[in-house]
Design goal:
single chain, 192 residues, alpha/beta, Rossmann fold, 4-stranded parallel beta sheet, 8 helices, 4 strands, Ptyr_pPase, Phosphotyrosine protein phosphatase I domain-containing protein
C-alpha cells in the first residue's frame, strides 16, 4: 500500500504524517512486513527544502526520524502511483483531484478518512486477506463516505501550525497521529 500525504508546502503537516506512519509501520506488530510505504508532497511546495525545524523536533519527541527529508511538489504521476491520497485540508484535496481526476475515489482529507474508516467493518477488511486489504479499506471508506452525515467543513482539515510555536506543532502532530489510528487498525485486520 502506497500512501501519499499532501499539504500546502510539504514542510510540516504532510512530512509529519509521512514519518509518523513510517514509525507506526516499523513498530506495530503485523505491519512491518505489510508492504506499506509513505511519501509526502505539497500543492505549493518548492523542491528539496528541509522540513520545518519545529516539525523535525516534534517528530523526534514522538520517536520518529525526520532525517533525510526533502520537500517535493505534487504532480499527477505521483498521485496516480498512490493507493491512497490523504491531504491535510480540503483545499489540497481539491487540487489533487483536479490534477489527477482518476484518484477521486481514493483521495480524502486525513481527518475525513479517519472519521470514515472508523465506520468500516473490520471483519470485512480482515476477510479480504492481506493482498486485497488495501482495496477493501479504500472501498469501505469510499462507501462510508456515500452514507456519512455531513460535518462542519473545518472538522475535516488539519490546521496549519506554521506561524505558531512548539505547542501548535506538537498539537498538530498529535492530531495527525490520532487520525492515523483507524487506518492502522484496518491495516492490521482490525486488531487494536
Amino acid at each position: 500500500m502506497r500512501v501519499l500525504f499532501v499539504c500546502h508546502a510539504n514542510l510540516c503537516r504532510s512530512p509529519m504524517a509521512e514519518r509518523l506512519l513510517r514509525l507506526a509501520v516499523d513498530t506495530r506488530p503485523g505491519l512491518a512486513d505489510a508492504g506499506v510505504t509513505a511519501a509526502s508532497a505539497g500543492t505549493h511546495a518548492r523542491p528539496r527544502h528541509d522540513m520545518h525545524p519545529l516539525a523535525a523536533d516534534v517528530l523526534r519527541e514522538f520517536g520518529a526520524d525526520p532525517d533525510g527529508f526533502a520537500s517535493q511538489p505534487v504532480h499527477a504521476g505521483l498521485l496516480c502511483e498512490a493507493d491512497l491520497v490523504l491531504t491535510a485540508a480540503r483545499a489540497q484535496r481539491a487540487t489533487c483531484v483536479t490534477l489527477a481526476p482518476a484518484v477521486l475515489g481514493r483521495t480524502f482529507t486525513l481527518r475525513q478518512f479517519a472519521r470514515l474508516a472508523a465506520a468500516v467493518d473490520a471483519d470485512q477488511v480482515r476477510t479480504a486477506g492481506p493482498a486485497r486489504r488495501v482495496a477493501a479499506i479504500v472501498g469501505g471508506v469510499h462507501e462510508a463516505r456515500a452514507h456519512a452525515q455531513p460535518v462542519p467543513p473545518d472538522e475535516d482539515d488539519v490546521p496549519d501550525p506554521v506561524g505558531g510555536g512548539p505547542e501548535e506543532m506538537q498539537a498538530c502532530a498529535a492530531l495527525i497521529q490520532a487520525a492515523l489510528h483507524p487506518l492502522l487498525v484496518l491495516l492490521t485486520g482490525g486488531s487494536r
